[in-house]
TrEMBL record:
The gene is dnaG. Transmembrane segments: none annotated. This is DNA primase. It is an enzyme of class 2 (transferase). Residues 260-342 form the Toprim domain. Its cofactor is Zn(2+). One of its GO terms (cellular component) is DNA-directed RNA polymerase complex. Its EC number is 2.7.7.101. It comes from Pseudoduganella guangdongensis. GO terms for molecular function: DNA binding; DNA-directed RNA polymerase activity; zinc ion binding.
Amino acid sequence: MIPQSFIADLLNRVDIVDVVGRYVQLKKGGANFQGLCPFHNEKSPSFTVSPTKQFYHCFGCGAHGTAIGFLIEYSGMGFVDAVKDLAQNVGMVVPEQDDKIPPAQRAAMQQQSMALSEAMSKAAEFYKAQLRHAPQAISYLKGRGLTGEIAARFALGYSPSGWDALKAVFPDYDSPVLVEAGLIIQNVEEDGRRTKRYDRFRERVMFPIRNTKGQVIAFGGRIMDQGEPKYLNSPETPLFSKGSELYGLFEARQAIRDAGYVLVTEGYMDVVALAQMGFPQAVATLGTACTTTHVQKLLRQTDTVIFSFDGDKAGRRAARRALEACLPHVSDDKTIKFLFLPAEHDPDSYIREYGAAAFEQQVHEAMPLSQFLLREAAGEHDLTSPEGRARVQFDAKPLLQAMTPTALRLQIVRGLATMTQSTPGEVEQLFELAKPVAANKIAPPKSRREQPVGLELKLIRVMIAHPTLSLNLDDEALLAFAHFGQEAAERLIWLVVQAQSLGEQGSFAALCQLLKETGSEYDALISEIGAAPEPDIDAERLWLMATVRHLKMDALKQELDQLFAAGLSSEEIGVRYREITAKQDQLRKEAEAG
């Protein structure tokens, strides 16, 4: 868990205009910057970035947030990765809970990471340059229907023949960084002696693999003639984990948003060929089965994920593994489908034979996850016999147990129940599903919390827009919030505590990020404040102090009335009466002083 104080400090140091400007062309427009929204198609700019609020807002699609939120939404990074990326750019080191690595060792690790990144970048440029002088590789790519434009977009390259071609770009060929990056191989004898060093990739078309920031972290190399392996991938390194990365995701991000879905294929060439054929929203797993991390990354980019697999047995096995990776992340607002092409085709060959329109039709007719799950469970079992139906339920049990209690799970339970001549309640009970839906009556909806209005809403707006103003509120001010009723008072006090926790570093952006982590209750209001003109903080401070004084006076008057109504003696009333009237006098003096 990253401390909230660090998040606040970070958001005070980064400039959201610089962060967004890396990905969106911005122009100054009044107090803010404007550009075309990267989250939806538009021809005239409705996307604004406020340097004073350190906040972005789109008047077209409603997207909004801080610099952290922008990186998460645009690049598909997780929260921690987004924070680390921003911190690195401003020279900050992210503190982590239970992080017992000494500072010197952490600095050395960061230095190693930078050295590896630099090595991969140099190698990528070298391979790219070599492609221009490799007629056999150019001929191979042209034979696959690829243009120079597509090759440039994916920064395709060529690794020349020879055992040490990389010496041309790495004079210090003995550097351990080259081995750690997976660019060269170091043979080691059983007695520990190091022998020959040589380039890992030779005479292959090179596919650079980029992370969400566009940095080259690995390579895939394809042989052009006969030979094994057909594809040679970089090994796992501190920069590269096959189970976490997706080929082509960096290049496909905007196309995924435009298309409304991402197409997940099985190989590098599928991705590049599909982009050439008019489907730039394709990505691929990296020679490994689809993982839950892959699914999480994809669902950050879009609400619809379509897996495309070859129709052969290997494709079916890959689809099953993808299904299992998806199940923990299934939700009712996401769509996951499975596209199976004829056994003799991959996406590239299918489009060449039948055309892009036919492939587009295949995409739209892809099999929904629910149907695929039930088909996998049914398998070849005999549904006319009790034993066959019991086996179907046995095979379906771990799949349904992996799902969260969603409406879609209930629909699948109902489908399975019909298939196996059971009731949904019996299936849920037999499978011991967490929070069964069908077996229980649906609880009546809870009465919705009353939304803040009037003076309470104004207080909330001021507190969110200028969190540092909360530092002027003392315990008596918080007690005075009882004027609004218990629920509203609790809401106001909670918000003040959150704002005060940020201290003097508190900013609109920092508080927005904190509130986002606690839920979506304030999301609409944050969006509204982010889109509004910048308020005058001095005027807001004067209004807040006057309002709090008024609430305190009301609270003191109410306490005074209760004191006289309690039937106490003059002595019992006296001490507290003098305290109350003294506070009232003090408040009047503060009001007169302005």
